[in-house]
Amino acid sequence: MNSEILGRLAAAVRDMDSEAVVALVNDSLEMGITPVEVIHDGLARGMEEAGVLFEKKEYFIPEILLCSDAMQAGLAVLAPHLVHDEGKEGETIVIGVVEGDIHDIGKNLVKMMLEVAGYQVIDLGRDVPAPAFVEAVRETQARFVCLSTLMSTTMRQMENVIEQLLAEKLPYQLKIMVGGGPVSQDYADRIGASYAENAIEAVKLIRYLQKESGH
Amino acid sequence: MIPPDEMTPRERMDAFKKGLPIDRIPCAPMVGEHVTRIIGVPVSAYLHSVDLMVEAQAQAFRYYGYDGVGLGPGHHGLAEALGARLHYPDDDRPQVIAPAISDYSQLDDLQPVEVDRNERLSSYLQALERIRDRIGDRVKVSTGVGGPFTAAAFVRGTDDFLKDLRRNPEKVHDLMRLTTASILNYMDAAHKRGFSCSLGDPIASSTVISPSHFRQFVKPYLMQIVAWAVQKTGSAPSLHICGDTVPIWMDMAETGVSSISVDNQVDLESIKNAIGDRVALKGNVDPVAVMLHGTPDEVRRAGRNCIKQAGDSPGGFVLSSGCTLALNTPRGNVQALMDAARMYGRKM
Asked: Which of A30, B82, B209, B284 has the fewest C-beta atoms under 10 angstroms from its C-beta?
């Protein structure tokens, strides 16, 4: 039934099989399964399984990238069907790689996991100057900002972004999350941010922070 | 308080290579472009000027007195020579902003680099000769180049390259042959001028690819390079792979490299027990948490800890950072690492 085909869809994502994903998404839609279900119980489930394999060191970056491609292929099929369903569900999150850094695999993984989890993600891309983060938050009134960097030399930019965001004196509490190779819990504590070690932890963290602030 | 050296860096490393007695554990932090901070010039200027390369390297050596001076195209320079487009920020290391090829049909147009026809690659060797003229009597001057896998990733575009390991393995091998041939050409040019050449292949670590992919796509080419080096120059190069290398130590040792340099995730005592009898070891103070953000005391303690773990390694041990230092690493911290070798690494 639903769970059977969605189970196979999840497996196809996990197995990096873009063709199978596209076929199974189409089949699911034909069966009348809602796009939201297809994402949550099919695509997202598959990506989560891939994440578990990554944590167990059975999957590495190439495999995650290919799973991500498979999932993107599925999302592309769903895109025209999502407009009506998704609407305004999902908290807005601003994400980007800080200025001076162009490494974005990690950021893209987090973005994808967040989108799949139902969040509305404003992706500023990479090498993003601090004012651009501020602008995006101002425009969208986002409560969450995710900063990423892979280089120790650009970590300082995170503090810069935080400083500029605090200077905005927003009428609500903004939560800032940081991540990336050289970033650590210690560092996050020091600069007044929350820390997630990887994309899966990032989703868990945001859910936790949402609950904490009563959302 | 700090025992003085009884040998020059040159004497120390010559003896070290031969397995003869030395006064203390050698110390050679991976300074990279941090040397520009000693003379206060932009990194981009340094990387494009033989004069500045010479001045920065000579001054930095004079300042710190470490046991090896190294300069080379690294992985970015090699990729650039093969056609990747680099961005040279004033104040940071170069970044690849466009790969050399957008699809494999263009691969046929690429040839292995020829150093004498490549101005940028030649400039490193020119600088090295002048640096050696100036300080080579006191310290060994050598060069370094990126490894074949990282170079291939930059030529192709890293994301696509990594995906190609599964979706287009034949082309990955074609790329690896191209980068390997280029590396051999550079090593040959360096050797003709009397410089040994080390390899650094960060994208080959187990942080990025599986050990199985390492064995399939990286190891055979490293073995080729080592075989060439041993046959042509009489010695094997050293290999640095930062990130997690625990699952591939044995494979790295099996390539025949003379020395393995590891990052801070690696437990030095474990790697010493596993392969310390077959290769020299180098590492592995955390370049960010300790070298960049720590106090000199923390640096000294970390250095002492490394020496405690691997100072007695049968194949030899060189104290170093786990990876290239951040440009703004406080000078006091680099100095503290040198002091740690003197304070805790005495051998005579």
From this structure: A30
